[in-house]
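In response to reviewer comment 3 from the previous cycle, which asked for concrete evidence that the modeling workflow produces usable outputs, we include below a single protein chain processed end to end. The sequence was submitted unchanged, and the resulting C-alpha cells are shown without manual editing.
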Amino acid sequence: MAVTTNNVSVGTTATELCGTNPKRRRLYIKNAHSSKAYFGGSGVTTSNGFHVGSDETIVISNDSPSDCSAKNAFYAVLSSGTGTVSIMEITD
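The workflow returned the following C-alpha cells.
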C-alpha cells in the first residue's frame, strides 16, 4: 500500500486534483481555503459540484458497491479567489 499527498492550487475554473488511477483505494480531499469548494468531474461548477465547506474533508473509497469510485479523476472549483485543496491517495 502506498500513500501520496499533494496540494493543488484551485481557482474559479475547474482544476484537476488527481487523474484516473485504477490502483486507488481511497481518496481524501480537503478544502484548505476560506471559500466554498465544489468537487466533481471535469465539468464541475459551483452549480453542479459537491459542496465542501472551508477546512472540511471528504473521503471517497472503493470499500462498498454503493460508494463513488475512488479510481476516477476528480476536479475542484472554488466559489471565489484562489486557494489550496489538499489530497491524500491510498493505492495498492
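The chain has no helices and eight strands. We consider this sufficient to address the reviewer's concern, and the full set will be provided in the supplementary archive.
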